[in-house]
Amino acid sequence: MVTPVESPPEPPESLTDPRELLLGYLDFYRDAVLRKLDGLPEEQLGSSVLPSAWTPLELLHHLTYVETRWVRWGFAAEPVDEPWGDRGPDGRWRVPDGMPAEDVKAAFREACDRSRQIVAAARLDDIASTGGRFDGSQPVPSLAWILFHLLQEYARHVGHLDVTREIMDGVIGE
Which SUPFAM superfamilies would you find in this protein's record (predicted)? Predict the structure, then answer.
C-alpha cells in the first residue's frame, strides 16, 4: 500500500516579492529533502535501490556541500577546507565511514543556516566575491543566479528522493 506524505505548504500564491518567493521555495525544498528521509531506518538511509548506487544519505551529504560550495565558498568567498566534499575512488559522493545519519542531517542543517545568514546580508543583484570559488578569470554570478541554481539542484534531487523512497517503502508525497 502506498502511503501519501503530507508536505508543508509552498510559499503562498499571493507572494509577489521575488526575493521572498525564491527564498521561500529554497526552504520548501530544503525541508522536502529532510522530509523524504524521515522514517527511513539507518540501514535504508545507507543503502541504494538505484543503478547509480547512490544512497539517500550520500545525496544529503552532497547537498550539504552544494550549499557550502555555492554560498559560503562561492558567493561569500569564505575559506572552505573541502568545498567539493568527500568522494570515494569512484568519484561518487560518500559519507565518511562511521558518520551517523543524525550527524549528516545536522551538517546539512548547519550549512543551510549559514547560507541563510549570508543571503540575509546581501541583495539578489550582488555579485559573488572573488577569492573563493571564483578567481575573476570567468564571469562571476550574481546572488540571484546562485540561488536559482540551488533551487534547480534541490528540485532535481528531491525528485530523485521521491523515486527512491517509493521504491524503498512505498511512501509518496510532494
Answer: DinB/YfiT-like putative metalloenzymes
d(CA 52, CA 48): 8
Fold of domain 26-173 = Four Helix Bundle (Hemerythrin (Met), subunit A) (1.20.120)
pLDDT band at residue 40, thresholds of 50, 70 and 90?
Answer: very high
CB 112 within 8 A of CB 23: no
Q: Read off the DSSP letter of residue 40.
A: -
Tell me: pLDDT of 3 over 90. Answer: no
Which 3 state secondary structure label does DSSP give 84? coil
What's the predicted TM-score (pTM) here? 0.92
What is d(CA 69, CA 131) in angstroms, rounded to the nearest whole number?
13
Residues 6+ apart with CB under 8 A from 103: none
Q: State the cell numbers at 107.
A: 551538517
Q: Which residues of 35-59 are buried (b: 16+ CB within 10 A; e: fewer)?
A: bbbeebeeebbbebeeeeebbbbbb
CA distance 172 to 164: 10
Look at residue 139 and give its three-state secondary structure. Answer: coil
d(CA 78, CA 129) in angstroms, rounded, equals 9
Q: How much is the pLDDT for 1?
A: 45
